[in-house]
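Q: What does the assembly look like in three dimensions?
Context provided by user:
Components: two
Sequences:
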Amino acid sequence: AQSVAQPEDQVNVAEGNPLTVKCTYSVSGNPYLFWYVQYPNRGLQFLLKYITGDNLVKGSYGFEAEFNKSQTSFHLKKPSALVSDSALYFCAVRVTTSGTYKYIFGTGTRLKVLA
Amino acid sequence: NAGVTQTPKFRVLKTGQSMTLLCAQDMNHEYMYWYRQDPGMGLRLIHYSVGEGTTAKGEVPDGYNVSRLKKQNFLLGLESAAPSQTSVYFCASRKTTSGGGTGELFFGEGSRLTVL
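A: Here is the predicted structure of the complete assembly.
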């Protein structure tokens, strides 16, 4: 079955330190991978995506993600965390089912950046 | 530019009551989706639509119906609400790839439904 896993329910990091939020996937074919962020009582906002090309993709708010095909991972990173980065982060993969694209989301990782 | 708008934002129902959630997008997107978000379960697809007049079932369609009579609107209906349908519901939309879309979904701000 095609799936996305976010192994950590919560990640705590001190402000100014680098952060990593992990995501692994299991899909057939070449994946389209996405990261979204959700602030309290808001909808999901697109951060970045990997479709093809350079394995390191840059997105909004200084976030980047590294696609690793051999490890089937797409970890979200930021060199220096801000308190305002505290939110819920979702990894997603686009799959093709019955000729239609669908999106499978991970269960989310809550990031807490401590001042 | 409003993007994706959901109404209502909050609703409390009694078991057995019916209601409709409205999703409206002003981006001329072909694809529209309804998800529910539950703690520890991420987002699960309820129904989706690939264009005006067409709908299809997602991962958890039971107890819900949808309609897409106009391209910009996607309605989610609960005919007889159950406590298990207490959740936060999100609508999303996107362009087709042939129409210049690159795959990302655009989300509304959610509708929080409580069924007592």
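Follow-up: The longest strand of chain A covers residues 87-97.
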